[in-house]
Amino acid sequence: MSGDLKAHVHDLLTKRQAHVQLDDVLDGFSTQRINEDMGLPYTAWGLLWHVWFTQRDILNFVRDEPYTELEWPADYWPKSAGTPESWAQTVQAFRDDLAAFLDLFDKADPLAIVPNGIGNGEQTWLREALLIADHNAYHLGQLVMARRLLEREDG
């Protein structure tokens, strides 16, 4: 059972299913306008950075003892504009961190409480994996919308 569950989680986090994956969104995404105001409460850069940073925070939560809780929302959004270089670095960090999380997940009992979790059974490895999947899907969908707005303004 655990192996099947882990395979489903891997697929959810790494394969196109009912939602887009990072590569789907980034294929052909121009980095020239990532800081542009589109009339939304965020920029394309802000979304990418936020998705990466939140995933990194969850990775830190499951692997770092002790974990230092960050301040929401101030710590979870970029404080400066992005560049094509920081965009590329953030994309690579997103991929690296997801691989690191999945490596840890593979070694854990999905229903076990993560090292920094509280003892009520809520903060399991499975919960953290589903949290990453849900959060990434939500904000990658927003990044698709941002890309479409930017492309429409180009046309």
Q: How would you describe what is shown here?
A:
The chain is an all-alpha fold and 155 residues long. It contains 5 helices and no strands. The protein has helices spanning 2-14, 22-26, 44-63, 84-107, 125-154. Helix 3 (44-63) runs parallel beside helix 4 (84-107) and helix 3 (44-63) runs antiparallel to helix 5 (125-154).
- How large, in whole angstroms, is the Cα Rg? 16 Å
Q: Look at the structure and give the mean pLDDT.
A: 93
> N-to-C SSE series?
HHHHH
- Helical/strand content category: mainly alpha
Helix content: 55-70%
Beta fraction of the residues?
under 5%
- Could you say which overall geometry the principal axes of the C-alpha atoms support? globular
Total helical elements: 5
First-to-last CA distance: 51 Å
The poorly predicted ranges are none
Features:
0% strand; mainly alpha; 59% helix; 155 residues
